[in-house]
Write a sequence for this structure.
């Protein structure tokens, strides 16, 4: 009914007509969801275990998932307390860390049940430019085993349970915002359980169509110098064949500077048993009375005891062996899976450019060393696998440039469509942004007016992305095509069935992975 038919009083009336249609609001592209174990999961007396919590900063993470600090002058609470053991060896250990004291070799190995990665991975994420994130804490730290792993063996933490991690993953089905799934402690599972978890993550990514999974490789913390490809082969054999374009992997682990010297002390050695430390710092063949006195005061504190940090500094000054041991343990504890840092790198790249910029040829802040320095030839086997196509992105050291992320592929490396992680993420960004905008037209008349409105809305959005450099082409017409209408995307039956079909074709930017120069000599001319 036209407006004038309802008016009965003479006068002047104003009708406002909308000149501008709805617009597409770009969805956030770099919101990781971390699943794993935290120091605690409590806030204001309420438990947040097995709850997906959105945080915006490291401070907010600490409020929910870290234990409170005591009042001064006491030392700050240790949020992460890995335990290491030192054992004398007859010969130089072939694997693992060790120190040399006199003419003796001492192997250094962790208690596997005290090794966790999520806390430090969150810190690495924020150091690299991370912002909003979801945390799913599936539990706290459990009891240590009281003994080290055999020298050089892979770390398997018996406290980390597959079912708990799978339960945390399932919770994320209710969350549409996360664009990355990360489980830093997955490499602490057995190979079989790790495989089950990775396949579940890829399956959920495929179903949700909103997130990718960033994987780490078991064995990346202590690679075999010659047989390192065994770990890559095992990884490829255990990711399954579904949803590979939603997964990406990075190798090896990175030696970071996340933990500082003040984070490691004698309480991290021998389960805190300083009696075992005494025989190492002050052997009968070469006694160290200063170190013995400090250790005695630790075991039998005086009336005015020193803090742990004060005793630790005194031991470092009194014993070169202790100082060397602490530095080696600190280096070991700082060896982290790269997935958390990669989430931060992706967030930084997205904020500076957009998801169409490959998160590669860029440094990971806080990465100071690598357990293996891959060459071009070695990386070739990681980057391209003709059989499975499961590419593994390398993190490499380059003289004069430092440590760089040197790969930009998904696990679907043989696919022309989904080979690159930036392409996968750009398409997800375009799809989800358009999907959310189109919800405003659900139940609108399925007619030419609605088709024109939704077509214009998506075209405006894609034009903006093209102007930012996210789509190829010298003009918008070269970059994308949007179609919606009877006879082009819909049939008469579609109209009767209440279906509106919109077809979008986009020319997504691909990274220049291989740059090839061609040089040729020519004759000199006048």
């Amino acid at each position: 009914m036209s407006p004038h038919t309802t008016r009965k009083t003479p006068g002047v009336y104003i009708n406002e007509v909308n000149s501008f249609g709805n617009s597409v609001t770009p969805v956030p592209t770099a919101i990781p969801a971390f699943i794993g174990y935290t120091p605690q999961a409590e806030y204001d007396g309420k438990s947040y275990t097995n709850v997906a919590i959105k945080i915006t900063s490291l401070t907010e993470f600490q409020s929910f998932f870290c234990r409170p600090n005591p009042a001064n002058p006491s030392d700050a609470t240790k949020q992460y307390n890995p335990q290491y053991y030192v054992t004398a060896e007859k010969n130089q250990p072939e694997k693992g860390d060790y120190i040399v004291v006199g003419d003796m070799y001492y192997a250094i190995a962790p208690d596997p049940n005290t090794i966790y990665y999520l806390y430090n991975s969150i810190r690495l994420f924020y150091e690299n430019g991370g912002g909003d994130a979801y945390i799913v804490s599936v539990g706290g730290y459990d009891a240590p085993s009281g003994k080290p792993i055999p020298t050089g063996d892979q770390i398997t933490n018996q406290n980390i349970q597959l079912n708990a991690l799978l339960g945390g993953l399932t919770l994320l089905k209710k969350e549409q915002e996360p664009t990355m799934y990360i489980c830093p402690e997955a490499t602490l599972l057995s190979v079989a359980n790790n495989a089950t978890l990775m396949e579940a993550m890829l399956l959920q990514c495929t179903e949700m169509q909103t997130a990718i999974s960033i994987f780490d490789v078991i064995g990346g913390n202590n690679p075999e110098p010659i047989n390192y490809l065994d770990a890559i082969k095992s990884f490829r054999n255990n990711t399954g064949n579904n949803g590979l374009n939603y997964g990406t992997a990075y190798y090896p682990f990175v030696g970071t500077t996340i933990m500082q010297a003040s984070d490691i002390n004698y309480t991290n050695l021998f389960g805190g048993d300083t009696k075992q430390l005494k025989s190492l710092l002050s052997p009968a063949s070469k006694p160290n009375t200063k170190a013995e006195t400090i250790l005695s005061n630790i075991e039998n504190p005086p009336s005015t005891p020193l803090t742990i940090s004060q005793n630790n500094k005194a031991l470092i000054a009194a014993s070169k062996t202790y100082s060397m041991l602490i530095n080696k343990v600190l280096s070991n504890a700082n060896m982290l899976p790269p997935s958390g840092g990669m989430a931060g790198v992706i967030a930084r790249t997205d904020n500076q450019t957009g998801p169409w910029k490959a998160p590669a040829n860029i440094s990971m802040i806080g990465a100071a060393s690598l357990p293996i320095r891959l060459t071009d030839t070695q990386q070739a086997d990681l980057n391209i696998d003709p059989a499975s196509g499961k590419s593994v992105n390398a993190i490499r050291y380059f003289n004069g440039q430092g440590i760089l992320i040197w790969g930009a592929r998904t696990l679907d490396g043989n696919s022309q469509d989904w080979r690159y992680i930036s392409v996968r993420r750009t398409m997800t960004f375009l799809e989800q942004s358009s999907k959310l905008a189109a919800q405003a037209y659900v139940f609108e008349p399925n007619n030419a007016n609605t088709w024109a409105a939704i077509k214009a809305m998506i075209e405006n959005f894609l034009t903006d992305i093209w102007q930012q450099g996210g789509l190829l082409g010298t003009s918008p017409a070269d970059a994308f095509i949007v179609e919606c209408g009877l006879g082009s995307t819909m049939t008469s039956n579609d109209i009767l069935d209440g279906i509106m079909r919109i077809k979008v074709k986009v020319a997504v930017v691909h990274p220049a992975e291989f740059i090839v120069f061609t040089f040729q000599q020519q004759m000199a001319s006048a």
About this structure: The chain has three domains: 32-73+116-259+335-421, 81-114+264-333, 444-526. The chain is about 30% helix and 15% strand. Residues 81-114+264-333 form one domain.
